[in-house]
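Reading group handout, session on sequence-to-structure problems. Before we discuss, look at one worked example. The prompt was deliberately terse, the way you'd type it at a terminal:

> structure fructokinase

The input record follows.
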Amino acid sequence: MKYYAAIEAGGTKFNCALMNQNKEIIDKIRVSTTAPEHTLKQVVDFFHQKQANFTIESIGLASFGPMDLNLNSKNYGNITTTPKPHWEHFPLSRHLHEKLNLPIHFDTDVNGAILAESIWGAAAKCNVAVYITIGTGFGGGVLVNGQILNGIHHPEIGHMLIPSDKVGHCPYHGSCAEGLASGTSMAKTWNMSADKLEDTHIAWQQEAEYIASVCHNLIVTLGPEKIILGGGVMQKTHLFNLIIKETENKLANYLPLSSPLDAIIVEPGLGDISGLYGAYALAIGKGNHSII
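And the output record:
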């Protein structure tokens, strides 16, 4: 039996699991994302304990970003300009590689999630699909013809600008998707965390309009067969119908779609563990970025 270390590194928490070649979780922990020295000590200690009893083949890391995925960069595998305190320009991939003395295969959390969804979830058999997570931040991964899309950088869908008369909370762009629609931004706008807002609160209609703008832009530019919406904010499942309705209004019957919108804009097939399964997919060699 082969074993793998899967790490979904999020802005709020690190989900870590020891998994076997059958995609089964042997053991797992959740570690709060605080300062790197505190968070990563717990992560490394967990896997060191597992190495005492299991031969781990490799690490799969699906991380919040942005990440430097340029193989020729001296900062390859680093987190870059994140607004997350203490993590800006942190060499996360290399740190884990050196501390655990294992090959590491890495990508962004959303790239990992769309990879996992394409293999085992809602994006199976899709030529073009997008996974969006809306939680602490707002990010998206794109799959085209079975390959994760990376050009001069990985997609930063969360920093797509959205027409709005509101002042957003992104420190770089203000009124981008992350600045307007992330869980963090919702809490700042309404002085209350998203999970505390009643379903009838006006915040959800506004949130639907922002997310629908992103969906509209993705549909007219990429033509995805699936737009998978995950993350903590999307736990408010009534939001899906609002988003679908608003997206339909924005598209204004311009494009003939091969499927109804409620078959395109969908929930994750893997539930709330798309990111962890994405890390596993990277660990078993389904990705493109590694430090050996």
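Points for discussion. First: The domain at 3-111+273-291 is CATH 3.30.420.40 (Nucleotidyltransferase; domain 5). Second: The chain has a mean pLDDT of 96.
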